[in-house]
Amino acid sequence: MSEDESNSESLMERQTTGEDRVRMVARQLSEPQTANWIASEAGWSHKPTKRVLDRLVDDGILHRDESGTHTTYYPDYRRQAMQEAMRLRDSGHTVEELTDRLADMKTQIRDWENEFEVESPNQLRGTLADESLDAEEEDHRRKIAGEWEHLQRRIQIVGFAIREWDFLAPTTEPAEASS
Known about the structure:
8 helices, Arc Repressor Mutant, subunit A, mainly alpha, 3 strands, 3-stranded antiparallel β-sheet, about 180 residues
């Protein structure tokens, strides 16, 4: 761990409570994780971490999966997508700027499809079986596959923000209930 990482970690621990850190870690999950993993990342003990996670599940912020050998927790990805779409709408960008970003992301994916002659990130990963590739090229393709998946998720969110631009507009008046 570098000195900067150590300093930022101790700063985070000094300025936040254990519960705050668990909430921050839980909201940033991109894949299901156990309470122990979350506790470790948050720098807090297991039992209070589990209590916070259970409250987050009760509040609908996290989901719990008990179907495997270990109980895992993961965020409501729909809620995350909606919040990200709202952030995009509120960011000061115009719908035209977001449309340009969307086009750039799609162009990048088409470039990778043409460069590697594949149609998906997993097909790109499958090319790693090619024995003629050196370690550097294998690492490059793994990295591209991860970026490709990230762009696919971003395309969905940015596309949603564009489609629902008017709906996502901040409102100053409370919505009236229709009778």
